[in-house]
Write a structure and sequence with these properties.
Number of helices: 10
Radius of gyration: 25 Å
CATH class: Alpha Beta
Structural class: alpha+beta
CATH superfamily: phage-related protein like domain
Strand content: 25-35%
Length: 364
């Protein structure tokens, strides 16, 4: 590794671009998010490089009315459970070859604008930041919708990992009839799950589900009736009812149940051995019911290279947990842009998370 051949531009523009691609503004508020995990997880530093998914297994109980001059009654404290593990490193890099470097030099020689040169020199920079965030997004959506993150060897180059959040079995419910059935009752199924959560002391505020599962809910007979009632239509031929537009159905559901639906329509691309494939990390045919829109933490650790920086390499942090770098190499001549992070999405308070399957138990 050695200093970039374009060090003046790297020093001038790397901090600017890092700020541009950050999800956090200077006042601490998030910009319009591109990824679900950035809205639902709080970034938290782990000094020892490990994570723990903490679950407070105990509902809030009302205080007793106590006579004056009487001792306070002792209550049983809720137990704390934790799923623990080490934080793995994730990262990627892109390399500009000698021919790519020649193209940048030709741009400079022909009097190209600074913006054109910057665009050519830093075109890999958003890819390394976005690539790390895409991996975290895939891990979170898979783990959030199933209770387990499984990055198998066919979905990564290197080490596969498994993280179990410990979702309670008693918080998983099945549909009375598979939702693809024309006689299914998905809203009644959700209402039953909401009631069971309430019996445990939890008030559901948000429901997350894949777009296809959302469409089953929206296009069901119950969904059409709900939308018709929202519009103020009563009576008539219910067979002639139509499904409402997605945004209007979300509004209708929230008006009836004081719960917000969040359809997840997300694809993540994976590259291995030069081939790219796409997959949907959020499990289909499941609804995740939560009591809050912030469900956990993005736990990140300190990188060895961050505390032992290599001479000649230009570094820049993004969102505190991503370390980006740019440097040159010889034999062959090249310019490398890299990004790395030690981070894992962690879901907390799993006793208050409920899964409603869109399939009947016998269908599994």
């Amino acid at each position: 590794m050695e200093q970039s051949r374009f060090i003046d531009m790297v020093n001038a523009w790397l901090p600017v671009l890092a700020d541009k691609y950050s999800s956090i503004t200077t006042n601490g508020e998030k910009t319009v998010p591109l990824r679900v995990f950035e809205t639902m997880l709080r970034p938290v530093l782990s000094v020892d490089g490990t994570y723990a998914s903490v679950n407070a297994n105990g509902s809030l109980v009302a205080a007793d009315v106590v006579a004056l001059d009487s001792a306070l009654p002792l209550k049983r404290r809720g137990s704390l459970g934790a799923m623990r593990g080490e934080i793995n490193k994730i990262g990627l890099k892109y390399r500009k070859t000698e021919s790519d470097i020649d193209k940048i030099n030709i741009l400079k020689a022909r009097g190209a604008t600074e913006g054109q040169i910057v665009a050519a020199l830093f075109d890999d920079y958003p890819r390394v930041i976005g690539g790390i965030k895409e991996r975290i997004e895939a891990m979170f959506l898979e783990g959030f919708s199933t209770g387990t993150v499984l990055v198998s060897e066919d979905k990564t180059v290197g080490t596969g990992i498994r993280v179990n959040y410990g979702y309670p079995d008693e918080n998983k419910f099945y549909a009375s009839k598979t939702w693809s059935d024309t006689s299914a009752t998905p809203i009644a199924d959700l209402e039953d799950a909401i009631d069971k959560a309430f019996e445990k002391g939890y008030t559901i505020t948000d429901i997350y589900l894949s777009k296809s599962t959302f469409n089953l809910l929206r296009n069901s007979q119950e969904g059409k009736v709900l939308y018709a009632n929202f519009l103020g239509l009563r009576g008539g031929d219910v067979k002639g009812l139509i499904a409402g537009p997605s945004n209007k159905f979300i509004e209708a559901f929230e008006s009836e149940h004081s719960i917000t639906l969040h359809p997840i329509n997300r694809t993540v691309r994976i590259e291995k051995d030069g081939k790219q494939t796409a997959y949907r990390p959020f499990k289909n045919n499941v609804c995740v019911l939560t009591t809050t829109s912030t469900v956990g933490r993005l736990v990140y650790g300190m990188l060895a290279e961050d505390t032992n920086r290599v001479s000649g390499v230009t570094y820049q942090k993004v969102d505190n947990y991503i370390l980006t770098s740019m440097y040159g190499e010889v034999d062959p001549l090249s310019e490398t842009t890299a990004g790395q992070a030690k981070a894992v999405p962690v879901v907390d308070g799993v006793d208050g998370i409920f899964l409603q399957e869109a399939t009947a138990q016998s269908a599994e």
